[in-house]
Amino acid sequence: MLRRLWLLLFYVPLCAWAQTETRLTWLDNRFRVDPEIEQITFVVTREQPSQSVVLVAPDGRKYYADRHSKAMSWYSDKGMDIISINHPMAGPWQALGKVSTNNGIRIISNIQLDAHQLPAQLYQTEVLKFSARLTQNQQPLLLRDFLDRVQLKVIFYPITSDLSNDTVDESTAIEVGTFADNGHEYDEVAGDGVFTVALNIDVVPGKYRVKIASTNGVFERSVEQTVLVYPTPITTTFTQSHRSLISHVVNIETKPEQIVAGSLAAYLVVKQPQTKPQILQRSTTAPQSQLELTWLNDSHVGKAWWRGWAYVTDALTQRELVFRLPKQNYTQVAIVTPSLTSPLAQQRLEQQLAARQTEQRQQRLLWIAITNIIVVISAITLLLLWRRKRTLKHDLMLPNELK
């Protein structure tokens, strides 16, 4: 029984691994492609130093990294070639070069790119988590050497519409985000074949064709969707204080017809001169549609900034929306009394300053006089005490006859 259990533990992982890739380590580096395969990718690990391999087709044609068929995409990296072929010729293929005897050649076939469906209605400046994954035979593709070199991007193509049809403008492509499978930020697990991106919809409102595609030639796959981008449903204004201990104000207001009342919440990070960053958090309750976040002007002079996030709920779809509040810099300056442009007011101000200076001068003279009087009185007092002491000493002297 124990022996059977060990056999199961040994063979089950091998079977699972065999479903995702085929490894070839034949001495002549030959591998056979079956007729039913529509797309295949060769991951060739080379010894170092070495040049890219030469790929030989069953009919004897040779293909190189810089000279190959249009049906191929060839990615050459240090110590590795990744070659993808659409509708490959059936039969024995061969890779000529310093192929590693340890890793050899891995074959991946029928790769598919699956992406989550984007909401049909997006908002300008919205940020949302978006995922895509690579599969082989409807199973997650987990070949790390391959995944580390995949570069997936999200590209928006504007669509212009007229009465007859829609026209996609390929010349004005807008790159909105790059996927990652590294376990950082929005990506949950590194190397699990699920690529994640925080899409920042920083495009003008309109209709777009969205394309998710590999952009570095590792393989040719893409997914396309059509979306509508609407104007942002929130308005953010910043009012800077120019008076000491009077608050700076960030006001966030939502459009009642688009956003659920009471669903607004906000998070700000504020950095003032000579202080550590502080965090401000507030939320609304029904039926409120706006909120204010404030912090005191601490009168320190220098550069300051704030940034944050706003969270709301879409009234139509009940979708939770996230908006990034971009970093805003401002400068806290010294408090200066505003100048008076009226000549009469200026004259009055000069008279007040002159009167104040006269008063201060009189006060200084008064203090000097008082100080001098105190000094004279103190000197006279000391002199009288000294004379009295001498008189007493003289009276206490003995008569001559008693000496």
TrEMBL record:
UniProt name for this protein: TIGR03503 family protein
Record has Transmembrane as a keyword: yes
Position of the signal peptide: 1-18
Keyword DNA-binding: no
UniProt keyword terms in alphabetical order: Membrane, Signal, Transmembrane, Transmembrane helix
NCBIfam families documented for this protein: choice_anch_X (NF041940), TIGR03503 family protein (TIGR03503)
Transmembrane segments: 365-386
